[in-house]
What we know:
The chain has about 900 residues and is an alpha/beta fold. About 35% of the residues lie in helices and about 15% in strands. The strands form 5 sheets. It has an 18-stranded mixed beta sheet. A 5-stranded parallel beta sheet has the order 2-3-4-1-5. It has a 3-stranded antiparallel beta sheet with strand order 6-8-7.
Amino acid sequence: MASVPAEFLIGKIVSVIENEAALLGGARDDLEEIKRELVSMRSFLHDTDMRRPQTDVEKTWVADVRNLVYDVEDIIDEFMYLSNKRQGRHRSTRNLHNTIGFPKHLWKRRQISVRLQKLSSMIKAIPERNQRYRIDHSMEGKSSDDSGKGALHGESSLFIKDDELVGVEDERQLLVGWLTNGELQRTTISVVGMGGSGKTTLVAKAYNSETVKRHFDCYAWITVSQTYVIEDLFRSLIKQFYRATMEAAPMELSSMNYQQLVEMLVNYLESKRYVVVLDDVWTANLWSQIKVSLPNSRHGSRVMLTTRNESVASLSFEIGSHVHHIRPLSEIEAWALFCMKAFSRNGSKCPLELEILAKDIVEKCQGLPLAIVSLGGLLSAKSSSEWRMVGNSLNWELHNNQILQPVKSILLLSYNDLPYRLKHCFLYCCLFPEDYSIKRKRLIRLWMAEGFVEQVKGITPEEVAEGYLMELIRRSMLHAVERNSFGLPKACKMHDLLRELALSISEEQKFCAVHDEQRVGAREDGIARRLSVQALGKETRVYEGMSLLRAFFWFVDDALFLSSINTLASGFKLLRVLDLEDAPIEKLPNDIVTLFNLRYLNLKRTLVKELPKSIGRLHNLETLNIDDTNIKALPKGIVKLQNLRYLLARRLNPGLYNDFDYVSGIQVHLDISTLKNLQVLGCVESSGNMMKQVQSMTQLVRLELSNVKSSDETELCSAIQNMPFLCRLFVMASNHEILQMNALKSPPPGLRRLCLVGKLENIPGWFHSLESLRVLHLHWSSLENDPTSHLQALPNLRWLILVKAYEGRHLQFRQGFTNLEILELLNFPTLELITIAKGVMSGLKELCIGNCENLMMIPWGVKNLTNLQELTLMNASEQLTKRICAPSGVDHEVVQHIPKINNFCFTSTGWFQESLS
C-alpha cells in the first residue's frame, strides 16, 4: 500500500521540474535522478503489496523503502517551502534565479547525492537479498490462501452447538423458506455482511437443517476464498455431490480438464434438485465461471453464497435471486452471547463488579458475533484485575493474543483484498474518533487534498472519490449511517474493531497516529505523517519533531488548544491538511499563511472572526470551509487562491429555522470571478457587481446567494441559465423583497437540489422542467395559491420541504408525487386541513408537520400511506395530539400502522419530546 506516496511524489517531481524551473537552480538534475529512483521504488512497493509479504525480512525491506519515500517527500517539500518563503521576501522576479538560487543550507547537492545513494543501494540490494536468503515467492500465495481458509473455517466452527446460537433463528427460517418455497426455477440466495458477522454460521444452520436435506436430491458446500482454481472447485463439487448420495466419485477426476468437468456436472445435475453453497465469494467473476456447470432444469434447485462484497450480492443472476443483509446482533442478543461465553462457569451470569466493564467490551464489538465469542472466550479465563487491561488494550490484544487470532485474520482478509488506493482511503478514516459519523463530502475533500484520488480522463476527482467511498461501503469496510435523496451516503462510520485494525496498521506503516485516551500516538520523533488529537493529557504538546506532519486534526473541546495554535504554522510547516472543525479557537495566527503546502483548511463551527489578510499566499489551497464561523467578510487576498475548488461560507441559525433569515451569507467586496477552478460557492451576499461576477462563473456545480433583490432577476437568471454543471442552487431574497426568477427560460439540466427563500408571486413556469430535481425547499414563499399542483409531476422528487410557503387554509395533494419519500410542512399559521388523495405519494416514509397552530387533525388520507415509517409533530395543537393518542383517540386506528410517532413541544425549559406511538 506504500506505493501511493511514491506515485504521488513522482507526479509532484514532474510538476516541479516542468513548472518551477526558475526555482530549481542546480537541483534539477538531482530531481530527475530522484524521479527515476522513485519509479523503481514504486514498482517494488506495488509488487510486494500484491504479494502481501509474509517474512520478517521482506517486511523490513518494505518498511525501509517506505521510509526512504517519506524522506524524499520531506526533502522536496522542505525545498519548496524554503523557495516559497524566499520568493515571498523577494518580490522582484527579474533575477529570481540568482536571488533564490538553491537553498544550500537546507538541501545541498552533496546531501542529495548521499540520500540518492542510499535509495539506489536499497533498491539494488533487494534481488541480492532474495538470492542470499532464498525467499521462495512461489509459496507466498499458498500460505496467504491457506491462512485465509483456516480463518474462515474457524469462523464457521465457532457456533457448533444449537444451545450456543443467539439471534439467528428468524433469519435461518427465512433462508429455509427461500430454499424450499416450491419455486421451480433455479434461484440464487446471497447472504452479505462484513467479516465475522456470522454469514457462514447462518447459512450452515439453514443448509444442515433436516427440512433442507430432505427437500433436495443432492447438496454440496465449497469454500471459495480469495484465490481459487475453477477446476478445483468443480472437482470439489463433484466429490461432495457423490458423497451426499453415497456414491463413489469417479477416479479420473484429477486428470479431467475444464470442459470434461463441466460436462460431468451438468449431466449429473440435469435431472436432480440440488443445493450448492459457495462460501466466501470475493469477486463477481466466480458466478460467470461456475454458472455453466449448474443447470436450470426447473426442478427447484438453489445456489446460496456468502460474501462481504455488496457488488457480488447484487449481481444479476439471470433467473431468480434473493439478497439477505445480515444484521449485527442486537444489544440484548450480543450481551446474551457474551455472557454465555465469558461466564459459562457462572451459569452465564455476569458478576456485578464486572458488569460495567463487560458492557463496554460488548459495545466495542458492535454486534459482531465472531468478536463477541472470541473476547468472551478470552476473558473467561481472566481475573477481575485483567479485564480492564484487556478493554483498554484491545488493539494490542488483537495482534498479540492467539485467542483473538481468528478475529484479526478475518478482518485482515478484507483489508488485504482492497486495491492499494483504497487502502489509504480506508486507513484515513481511523483519524476520526471512535463511533464518529464522517460526512461524505468532508472525507472526499480530504482524500483529494492528500493526493489519494487518481486522475481519470472524463471523470471529475469528486466522482472518482465517491466511487472509492461506495466501494468501501460495498465491501463492508465502512457502513453508511445516513443516506441522501440520491441514495448516496451522507455519512459513514467505521466498525470499532476495523478501526482498531486500521490504527494498528497505520502506526506500523507510519501512515498516521492518534492521541486518545488509550494511546499516545504523537511521538517525539515525529514519525507519523498525520496526527489526530482526540484526548488531552500531560503529554499533549507540539513537538519539534512533528514538523514533518502532513495532516493535523483536533477533536477536543478544550482551552488548552489556544496555547498551542500559535505554534501550528511554525511547527507544522509542511501541512497539507488542517482540520479544526469545532475547535475552541477565536483567532488564526497570521503566519498560518506560510503553510504553502496547505490544500485543506477547515474552520467550521469555530469562533474565528476573520481570515488573515494575506491568505492569498496559500496558493495551493483547494478547500476553505468557514461555515458557521463568525467571519462576516472575505479578505481581498482570497482572489489569489487560484486552486480553490470549495468556498464554504454559510452561517446557519438553526434556532431560527422557521424564520425568514435562518441563513446568513458572507460579504465579498472583490472580484471572485477570477477563481476559475471554483466548484462550490456558498453562501455569499449579493451586493455591488456580484451578479455580473457570477455570470462568468459557468463552471460552478453549487451556488448559494443571499440578499438577492428583485432588480437582480435578469442577471441572476442569465447566470443560472449558463451554468450547465449546476447541481445545487440556493437563492435567498433580500428581506421584504419579492424573489423574482421568472426570467429563467430553462434550469440547468442536472439541477438536483433547489432552495428558494423569499416571497414568490407564483411558482415559476420553468419548474415543470426540473426532471432531475430530488430535493425542493420553498421557504417563506407565502403563495396565495396551493403550490402542490405545480409540483406533483416532478418525476424524481424525493424530499419536499415547505416552510410558510402557502397562506391558504387547505393544502391538497390530489395526485402525483410518485417518488416522494420525505415531506416536511412547517410554519403554516393559517392551515386548517391537509388532504392526501388515495394513491398519492404512496412511497412516503417520513412526514413532519410543525408549527401549524390551527391544524386540529392529522392529514386526511394518511391511512393510505402504508409505507410511512415515521410521523413527527412539532408544537402540535392539543386537540390534534389527543385525536391520535392511544387508546381513546378517534384517529388512533388511522395511524396505528406508523411505527414511530413523536411530538416535540417547545417549553420554557427547552424542547420536550413525547411518543404518541
